[in-house]
Amino acid sequence: MTAADSRSLSVRWIFALAGSVAQGLVRFLYSVLVGRFVGVAALGTVNSAISVALLLSLLWPTSAGQGATRFVAQMRGAGRDDQAQAVANYLGRRMLLSAFALAAAAFGACAFLLHTDLVTAACCALLLLGYASWSFARGVQYGGGQIARAALWDVGGSVLAIGLLVLVLLLGWNAVLLVPMAVAYGLYGVICWPKRSTVEVDKTLTAEMNSFVRYGVLGTLSSTGLLQLSMIAAQFFGTDIEAGFYAAALSLATPATMLARTVSQVLFPSMAEAGGREDPTSLRRQTDVMTRGLVVTMIAVFGALALASPLVVDLFFGERYAGAKGLLAVLLIAVMFTTLPVACINRLNSTGTRGARFVSLTAMGGLILAVVLWFPLSGFLGLEGVAAGYLIATLATATVSIVRSWRMDNQEWKGLFAKAVVGVLLIVAGLVYTRAASLPDIAGPFLALGFVAVWAVVCRADVQRIRSVRTKPQPAPDDAAQDQSKLSGDGQDETSNK
After folding, report:
1. Distance CA 26, CA 349 (A)
2. What does pTM read for this prediction?
3. Which among 173, 310, 467, 494 counts the fewest CB atoms within 10 Å?
4. Are 265 and 91 in contact (CB under 8 A)?
5. Domain limits of the chain?
6. d(CA 88, CA 198)
7. In sequence order, what DSSP letters do the residues of 353-403 get, joined into one string?
C-alpha cells in the first residue's frame, strides 16, 4: 500500500490546500500587481482575457480533468489499475483535441468581442492551452492519490509564474502580461502528463466517461463559468474603468474559495473509490462531515471578509479603487454560496450519470437566471446589478443541490442550516448597518471579529461533532496500489513525499 492510500482525508486536504493556496495566490497577485503597477483599465482587460480562457476551457478540458479524477479513482477502488492508466490516456487525447480548437476560439473572442489587441488575444489562446493541460494533468494526479506530488508542482509553478510576471513588469512588456501564467500552467501539464498505457481502455467505459464529461461541461460551464462570465459581463455592461473595479473586487472575493475547492478535489476521488466499493455508508458520512465543515468555516471566513471589505480594498489596491468597495461585499456573499454545496455536489456526481445530469441542469438553470437578471439589474444598479444577479443565481443553485443531497441520504441537517440562515442574516444586518451609519472603514475589522465570535458560539456543537468523527477512506487493495506511480509522468513514488 502506498502512503497516499493510508492518509486520512484531513491530511490529504492539507496537501491539496497547499497546492490550491499557491494557485490562488498566482491569480490574486496577478490582479494586485497589474492593478497597482499598470492601471485600472489594464486590470480590467487582463482579467477579462483570463476569464475568456478559463470560461472556454470549461467546454471540455476542465471536465475531462474531473472525469479523469473520478474514473481513475473509481478504477483504483475496483482494483483495476491497468484500466486507470488507460482511462487517463483516453481522456487526455480527447482533451488535447478540444484544447487546440478552443484556443482558436479564445483568440477570436478577445479580438472581436472584447476588442483587445492581437497580441493580447494570442496570449489568451496560449493561456487556454496551458490551463487545459494543467487542469487535466492535475485531475489525473488527484484520481491517482498523488496529492502531495501535485501540491509540490503547484507551488513550483506558482513561484515561476509570479517571478516571470515581475520580470515582465520590470521590462515594461505590458502586451504579454498573460504569458507568465500560460508558461507556468503549460510546464506543469508537460511534466505531469500521464505515461502511455500498456492496455486499451475498456470499451464499456468509454460511453460512460464521455457522458460524464458532457454533463460535466454543462455543469461546470454553468457554475464555475458563471463566475468568469460575470467578469465578461462587467466588461460588456460597464466602461473599462468600471470593469477594472469589478476585476479588483472579484480578485479579492475568490481566493477564499480555495478552501472549499480543496475539499472537492480530495473528497471527490474518495467518494468515487467508495462508489467503486459500493459503500453508501461512507458516502453519507463523508458528505455530512464535509458539509458541516463548510458551513462552519465558509460562513465565518466570507462573513468576516464582507464586513471588513472596504478596508480590504484599500489595503490591497489603494484609494483609487474605491469603486470596488460596494461590489466586494456582494461578490463575497455570492461566492460563499458557491462553496457551501461543494460536498453535496460531489455526492450527487458520485452517483454516476444521473447525478451529473441533475447537477448540470441545476447549474444551467442558475446561469440562465443570472443572464436574465443582468440586463434589468445592470440598468438600475450598474455593475452592482451584475454582482446582484450573480448572487441570486448562486443562492438558488446552492439551495437546490443541498436539498437534493439532503433528501437522498436523509441527512440530519435541519439545525445546521437553521444556523446557516442566522449567520447570513447577521452578515446582511452588519452590512446594512455599516452603510446606513456611514461607519469608517476601520470599523469593519471590529464588526468582523464580533461576528466570528458570535458564530463560533453558535456552531460550537457542530465543531465538536466534526472533531469527533474520523473520516479515513477505505484502503485500496495492495496489489492494485502497486502501480499507482505509473499514473504520473514524473516517475516519483508517493512515499518520497513522506
Report:
1. 29
2. 0.77
3. 467
4. no
5. 15-203, 223-470
6. 12
7. HHHHHHHHHHHHHHHHHHHHHHHHHHHHHTHHHHHHHHHHHHHHHHHHHHH
Say if residues 286 and 365 touch (Cβ distance below 8 Å). Answer: no
Q: Do residues 485 and 492 lie in contact, with contact meaning Cβ atoms separated by under 8 Å? A: yes
AA identity, residue 286: Q
SS3 411: coil
Contact 359, 344 (CB under 8 A): no
Give the rounded distance of the alpha carbon of 347 from its chain centre.
17
- Residue 450 is which amino acid? G
pLDDT digits (tens, 9 = 90+) for 179-214: 999 999 999 999 999 998 889 999 888 998 998 898
Neighbours of 200 (CB within 10 A): 11
Cα 139 to Cα 79: distance, rounded to the nearest angstrom:
19
Helix axes 257-276, 342-349, angle to 10 degrees: 30
User: How would you classify residue 440: left for phi > 0, otherwise alpha for psi between -120 and 50, otherwise beta?
Assistant: beta
Query: Residue 208 phi/psi, 5° resolution?
Result: -65, -40
Residues 181, 182, 186, 187: is their CA dihedral positive or negative? negative
Closest CA to 233 of 95, 356, 105, 388: 388
Q: Over the stretch 279-322, which tens digit does the pLDDT of each residue have?
A: 677 788 888 888 998 899 899 999 999 999 999 999 999 888 99
Report which residue type is found at 267: L
What does the alpha-carbon distance between residue 304 and residue 321 come to, in Å, rounded to a whole number? 20
